[in-house]
């Protein structure tokens, strides 16, 4: 099996392998640069500073009379933030908010954009349907030649 | 993101309209535009199937930025004979993706279109990302283009 794979790789031109390595390095560099700089520029960057304007999204995990709890992922763990807003939300909704901190763990929301869980599921099903159609159309026109490691036209 | 179905429909529509003028935009090449239109959402496709946790998504997020999408298209194009044409077609699909994504209402700021040169965010704040009306509009336009294409084909055969 490994021997076969080695034979296939040997047949791939050196230029292609070199191009692949260069592109992977560029992509890896973009990942690293983004991960290192995103906290300063991204949506979670200023989230712990009082009275600072913040904008982020998360999932509704609890609802109370005049506020709801929004859970969001940041780096490696979940964070819960209380959001003061009169907007109607339900458990499981995804909510984007813009607002500012009025206490260390509470945000007064100015803008609230709600996507309910049914909407999200519907997007998921439409996306899966789209992917299936794409796969059918793509493989109708292209086939993969293993010993050249290339997609070639069927017609 | 609007759903992938909408992205694919729009890419097909753009490719088919271009095929009226340039015959290089045939079936296989239009399918490459469609592939290009889903490249920015590769990281989200992985999320959909729960391959990765959200924090990994934060690391691979540059794929959903123009420069990252183009690099991924470059990688994909290495697996086709006509690499330059493949890269061009996939780039066209990527462009349709970002034009649609720019229309989304995004209270968190929008897309870093010029990353890594700039961290400015861009959005037109026109439609909700779960709004299916955009899918219906894309479907109607695609249907009209399909009917028009068939009419031209029949006309040429006569």
SSE diagram, text form:
The complex is a heterodimer of chains A (155) and B (158).
Chain A: H1 2-11, H2 14-41, E1 53-63, E2 67-74, E3 77-84, E4 94-103, E5 106-115, H3 117-141, E6 142-145, E7 150-153
Parallel strand pairs in A: 3-5
Antiparallel strand pairs in A: 1-2, 1-4, 2-3, 4-5, 6-7
Chain B: H1 4-19, H2 27-38, H3 42-48, H4 54-59, H5 66-77, H6 83-102, H7 133-157
Notes on the structure:
The complex is a heterodimer of chains A (about 160) and B (about 160). With about 160 residues, chain A is of the alpha+beta class. Chain A has three domains: about 1-40; about 45-115, OB fold (Dihydrolipoamide Acetyltransferase, E2P) (Beta Barrel); about 120-155. Chain A has three helices and seven strands, in the order ααβββββαββ. In chain A, the strands form two sheets. In chain A, strands 1-2-3-5-4 form a five-stranded mixed β-barrel. Chain A has a two-stranded antiparallel sheet with strand order 6-7. In chain A, a hairpin with a 2-residue loop joins strand 2 (about 65-75) and strand 3. Chain A is elongated. The two termini of chain A are about 30 Å apart. Chain B is mainly alpha-helical. Chain B has one domain (about 5-155). Chain B is built from seven helices and no strands. Chain B has helices at about 5-20, 25-40, 40-50, 55-60, 65-75, 85-100, 135-155. In chain B, helix 1 (about 5-20) crosses helix 6 (about 85-100) and helix 2 (about 25-40) crosses helix 6. The longest helix of chain B is centred in the C-terminal third of the chain and has 25 residues, at about 135-155. Chain B is globular, with a radius of gyration of 17 Å. Chain B starts with a helix and ends with a helix. Chains A and B meet through helix 2, strand 1, strand 4, strand 5 and helix 3 of A and helix 1, helix 2, helix 4 and helix 5 of B.
Could you give a short description of this structure?
In chain A, 41% of the residues lie in helices and 35% in strands.
């Amino acid at each position: 099996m490994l021997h076969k794979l080695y034979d296939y790789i040997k047949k791939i031109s050196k230029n292609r392998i070199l191009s692949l390595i260069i592109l992977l390095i560029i992509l890896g560099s973009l990942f690293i640069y983004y991960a290192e700089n995103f906290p300063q520029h991204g949506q979670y960057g200023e989230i712990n500073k009082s009275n600072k304007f913040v904008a982020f999204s998360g999932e509704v995990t609890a609802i109370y009379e005049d506020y709801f709890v929004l859970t969001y992922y940041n780096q490696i763990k979940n964070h819960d933030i209380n959001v003061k807003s009169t907007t109607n939300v339900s458990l499981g909704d995804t909510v984007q908010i813009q607002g500012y901190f009025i206490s260390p763990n509470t945000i007064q929301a100015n803008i609230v954009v709600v996507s309910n869980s049914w909407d999200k599921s519907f997007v998921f099903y439409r996306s899966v349907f789209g992917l299936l159609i794409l796969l059918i159309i793509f493989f109708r026109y292209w086939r993969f030649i293993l010993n050249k490691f290339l997609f070639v036209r069927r017609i | 993101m609007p759903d992938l179905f909408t992205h694919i429909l729009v890419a097909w529509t753009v490719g088919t309209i271009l095929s009226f003028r340039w015959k290089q935009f045939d079936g296989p090449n239009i399918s490459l535009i469609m592939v290009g239109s889903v490249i920015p959402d590769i990281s989200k496709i992985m999320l959909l199937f729960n391959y990765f946790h959200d924090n990994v998504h934060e690391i691979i997020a540059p794929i959903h930025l123009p420069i990252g999408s183009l690099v991924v298209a470059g990688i994909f194009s290495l697996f086709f004979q006509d690499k330059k044409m493949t890269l061009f077609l996939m780039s066209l699909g990527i462009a349709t993706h970002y034009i649609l994504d720019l229309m989304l209402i995004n209270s968190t700021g929008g897309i870093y279109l010029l990353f890594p040169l700039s961290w400015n965010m861009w959005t037109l704040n026109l439609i909700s990302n779960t709004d299916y009306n955009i899918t219906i509009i894309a479907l109607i336009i695609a249907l009209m283009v399909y009917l028009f294409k068939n009419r031209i084909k029949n006309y040429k055969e006569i």
